[in-house]
């Protein structure tokens, strides 16, 4: 059998539903393979301590009566942990099984982490032209079912949709790919999926120990206390390891590997917290390898002063950043540089037949250059009024319009990670991040901030996208003036 690792645990669960933080485990199966040989098959039904929905009973064949009297997860937790510790965790749609186990352990106050290999992703990588990669598809395509399992008494729990039956199918799948694929091809696929790190010699062997598989920010340091690079991820363990995986390294990663001497990380409750923290830390420390996130002095906006004046390029310090007045209706961006504004306007002019003279690019009389090549609708020769022209320009620019602050005052965006026991409230007002609170009192204190931070285009962009992707998730907080009402 292919040696994925010296010790491998093939895992499958049956559950009361699909939501790891709410639903519970009803069956666990673990097949342990050590040095290529199956050394143990173990499975048990689990009392979920809640009713099993009828549709789940029909799918899995596990009824409320069957789990009545079965051990709870708390009773088998030590056995499960002992079988998984030191093993590569292999499962089909592994995030599902791994997530459920992490949540079951978290309810008991136990932190569980493992290297995880998903056989769905492995199948996609090794068989990219195959029609499907579900377990049913793999079973049919590769003939993974043992007739003895299928003909057994259903109470034996060894057929399809039994935890042990599905786990055995995964073991057979690995044996199939060993016959059909070369060891080099399998090894390369596994290394890429696991992002197996090859640490530079100047980093201690334990440098990556303790990395969580949750959201946060990580920092790489060289010979002093100034970070070389700051990054973020929803899975710190996976992302940091990828920097040192030979299959993933780009030129920047190679340079970092040569310069790095130590690393650290800060956990956050979710992705937004990681994004906000990364943006702040990068601007404070200006790491050498974070050129894209540093504050650029050339960042600017486009402005349409009126329906008779040409568009202008505006510097940040020339703008009233209240963003609740009429001026925000005429501002567009932000853009990385004046060149970016010009490129956009030129593209829109060509697409919408805009006049180069009314855009402010030509001063002489007569038809503009665009009119001469039949790309202007004629504002320069009186065939269109300036108001009509600029109305069309404003319409074309609408996707880039600087958005009004959509709330009456500050709001809190709450993120939580129940597995790691982290909850954070990000307090924001008029597109500024006022701070991140760990409790309600701190959130209310941040909302009373009288002096807003400077407007940051990166924060604006990520908050705007977050509000679009998560409507209705922001919680209103009292405005500073409310204290004196």
Structure, briefly:
The chain has 485 residues and is an alpha+beta fold.
Query: How would you write the strand order of the largest sheet?
Result: 3-2-1-4-5
Largest sheet: 5 strands, mixed
Averaging pLDDT over every residue, what do you get?
88
- How many beta-strand segments? 15
Strand-residue fraction? 15-25%
C-alpha end-to-end distance = 74 Å
Our Rg estimate from Cα atoms comes to 29 Å
- The total of helices stands at 17
Shape: elongated
Q: Decide which structural class fits the backbone.
A: alpha+beta
Helix percent band: 25-40%
Report low-confidence residues grouped into runs of 5 or more: none
């Amino acid at each position: 059998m292919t040696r994925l690792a010296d010790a491998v645990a093939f895992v499958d669960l049956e559950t009361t539903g699909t939501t790891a933080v709410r639903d519970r485990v009803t069956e666990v199966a673990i097949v342990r393979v050590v040095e290529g040989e199956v050394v143990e098959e173990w499975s048990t039904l689990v009392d979920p301590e809640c009713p099993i929905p009828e549709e789940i009973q029909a799918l899995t064949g596990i009824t409320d009566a069957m789990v009545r009297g079965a051990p709870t997860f708390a009773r088998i937790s030590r056995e499960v942990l002992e079988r998984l510790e030191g093993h590569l965790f292999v499962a089909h749609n592994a995030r599902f099984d791994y997530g459920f186990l992490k949540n079951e352990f978290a309810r008991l106050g136990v932190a569980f982490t493992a290297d995880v290999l998903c056989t769905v992703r492995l199948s996609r990588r090794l068989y990219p032209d195959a029609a499907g990669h579900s377990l049913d598809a793999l079973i049919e395509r590769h003939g993974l079912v043992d007739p003895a399992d299928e003909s057994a008494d259903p109470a034996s729990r060894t057929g399809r949709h039994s935890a042990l039956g599905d786990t055995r199918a995964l073991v057979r799948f690995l044996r199939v790919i060993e016959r059909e694929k070369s060891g080099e091809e399998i090894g390369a696929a596994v290394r890429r999926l696991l992002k197996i790190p090859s640490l530079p010699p100047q980093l201690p062997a334990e440098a990556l120990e303790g990395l969580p598989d949750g959201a946060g920010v990580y920092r790489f340091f060289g010979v002093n206390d100034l970070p070389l690079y700051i990054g973020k991820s929803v899975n710190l363990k996976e992302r940091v390891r990828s920097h040192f995986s030979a299959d993933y390294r780009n030129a920047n990663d190679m340079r970092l590997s040569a310069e790095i001497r130590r690393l650290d990380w800060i956990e956050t409750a979710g992705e937004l917290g990681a994004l906000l923290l990364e943006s702040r830390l990068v601007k404070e420390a200006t790491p050498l390898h974070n050129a894209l996130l540093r504050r650029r002095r050339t960042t600017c906006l486009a402005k349409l002063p009126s329906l008779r004046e040409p568009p202008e390029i505006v510097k940040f310090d020339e703008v009233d950043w209240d963003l609740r007045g009429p001026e925000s209706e005429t501002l567009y961006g932000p853009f990385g540089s004046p060149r970016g504004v010009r490129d956009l306007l030129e593209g829109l002019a060509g697409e919408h037949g805009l006049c180069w003279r009314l855009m402010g690019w030509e001063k002489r009389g007569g038809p503009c250059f665009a009119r001469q090549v039949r790309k202007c609708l004629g504002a320069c020769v009186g065939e269109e009024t300036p108001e009509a022209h600029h109305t069309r320009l404003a319409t074309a620019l609408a996707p880039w319009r600087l958005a009004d602050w959509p709330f009456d005052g500050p709001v809190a965006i709450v993120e939580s990670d129940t597995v790691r026991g982290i909850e954070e409230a990000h307090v924001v007002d008029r597109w500024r991040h006022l701070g991140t609170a760990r409790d309600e009192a701190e959130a209310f204190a941040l909302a009373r901030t009288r002096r807003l931070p400077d407007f940051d285009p990166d924060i604006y962009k990520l908050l705007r996208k977050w509000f679009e992707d998560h409507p209705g998730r922001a919680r209103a907080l009292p405005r500073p003036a409310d204290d004196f009402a």
